[in-house]
Amino acid sequence: MCGRYIIRQQAKALREWERYGPPPFLESYNVAPTQQVPIVRLRDDAPEFASVRWGLVPFFTRGAPPSYSTINARIETFETAASYRAPWRRGQRCLQLASGFYEWHLDRHGRKAPYLITVADQALFAFAALWECSRRADGSVLESCVHITMPGNALLADLHNTGSNPQRMPAIVRLEDRDTWLRGTPEEARDVLKQYPADLMDAFEVSCRVNAVKNNDPGLIEPVMRELARA
Q: How many other C-beta atoms can be found within 10 angstroms of the C-beta atom of residue 71?
């Protein structure tokens, strides 16, 4: 499960995304559920950036966020789950931008510490995600998204060992697969959902200040330890 992540406005990283249009400005070191987040999606067969709610609001709830969590959709069930099957079948796939994400590790002494996980070959990468449009009774529209999660690779299976959904990781889209996720057939898009290689990821412990959503500053991503300690 991925419940917090970061987005950094680095010029080189943003240039890699300019082909999809002008990226919306957002820099956050503690992105949390229900916040507005940047995505790339297709509209009339053309890519566009959009800002939507993180935490999918199904069309059938008429704009009311459900009582259950919809920030992550499991790869095992997203094609059939009531909240996600409609956007999947409609081809409402999107790229949810991130520069890194947090997971928590519980050591043998019962100490629970946050780690920041980054991707070595993409400074600004994307989770494979779905977007939805839910219309309220007054006619206003709420747009939202959910990203897909899967069993963790060797790094995440070891690190992410606590919480309600341990040993999982977000589905990170490879650079060469971005257009396939957006434009491919359902079969082609489904095939994009693979574990990101552990040797292309890095993880280090960061401050427990990230536990509080109100904290949002560069100090959150300063390493407490340079290497992952599997104590």
A: 20
Neighbour tally for 137: CB within 10 Å: 8
Q: Enumerate the domain spans of the chain.
A: 4-221
214 contacts: CB under 8 Å, gap ≥ 6: none
> Using CA atoms in the order 61, 141, 54, 31, what is the torsion angle rounded to 10 degrees?
-140
For 139-176, the pLDDT digits (tens) are 999 999 999 999 999 999 999 999 989 999 999 999 99
Query: Cα dihedral sign for 13, 19, 25, 29?
Result: negative
DSSP 112-131: EEEEEEEETT-SSEEEEEEE
Architecture of domain 4-221: Alpha-Beta Complex (3.90)
